Amino acid sequence: MGPLRDGARVVVIGGGPGGVGAALAIANLASQMGRQIHVTLFEGKVFAGERHFNQCVGVLSPPIDRILQDSLGIPFPRHLIQREITGYILHSDRRAILLECDDPPGFAVRRVQFDAYLLEQARACGIQVVNGRVTDLEFHANRVIVYGDTGNSEADVVVGAFGSDDGTALVFERATDYRAPRFLNSIVTKIHPGAEFMAQFGNCIHAFLPSAPGIEFGAVTPKGNHLTMNIAGARVDVNAMGLFLHSPAARAVLPRLDGGLGENDLAFFKGRFPTSQARSFSGDRYVIVGDAAGLMRPFKGKGVNSALLSGTWAARSMMTAGISTRAFRQYHAACREITDDMPYGKAMRAIAIGISKWHLLDTVIALAAQDARLRHALFGAVSAHRSYRAIVHELLDARWLARMAWMLAKMPFRNRLDKERKTP
Question: I need a labelling partner for 208 at 20 to 30 A (CA). Which of 26, 93, 148, 406 fits?
Answer without folding.
Answer: 406
